Amino acid sequence: QVQLVESGGGLVQPGGSLRLSCAASGGRFSIYTMGWFRQAPGKQRELVARITSSGNTNYVDSVKGRFTISRDNAKKTVNLQMDSLKPEDTAVYYCNAANPFSAAVYWGQGTQVTVSS
């Protein structure tokens, strides 16, 4: 069982930056593929960025060049650096952990990101 706790959300003006963090406990963090998803009102949850145990990353096209995902296996954390934020980035952001050797998937409780002037 893996527990995930997100932090770092908030209100920011367009063009600003935020850094989301996700702290994990339980399980073998280093083997998990970690991801950040988001869900805007009235929309489906979508993958924003993902990082594998070996450090390979992928991003949804809309955030490429603006967001950076990283992980620290020693601290059991995964971060999402979000720069040049746009109003369309407004959503609840969720941390996700997926065990590549099983069907186990875990979610955090979510953190609100609002981009508005």
Please describe what this structure looks like.
- About 0% of the residues lie in helices and about 50% in strands.
- The strands form 2 sheets. Strands 2, 4, 5, 6, 9, 10 and 11 form a 7-stranded mixed sheet that branches. A 4-stranded antiparallel sheet has the order 1-3-8-7, with no helix packed on it.
- A hairpin with a 5-residue loop joins strand 5 (about 45-50) and strand 6.
- It is an all-beta fold.
- The mean pLDDT is about 95.
Blueprint (SSEs and pairs):
Blueprint: E1 3-7, E2 10-12, E3 18-25, E4 33-39, E5 46-51, E6 57-59, E7 67-72, E8 77-82, E9 91-98, E10 105-107, E11 111-115
Parallel strand pairs: 2-11
Antiparallel strand pairs: 1-3, 3-8, 4-5, 4-9, 5-6, 7-8, 9-10, 9-11
What is the chain-wise order of helices and strands? EEEEEEEEEEE
Low-confidence spans: none
Mean pLDDT: 96
Instruction: Measure the end-to-end span.
Output: 40 Å
Radius of gyration: 13 Å
Number of strands: 11
Strand residues, percent: over 45%
Summarize the amount of helix as a percent range.
Answer: under 10%
CA-based shape: globular
In this structure, how is the largest beta sheet organized? 7 strands, mixed
Q: Structural class, judged by helices and strands? A: mainly beta
| Number of helical elements | 0
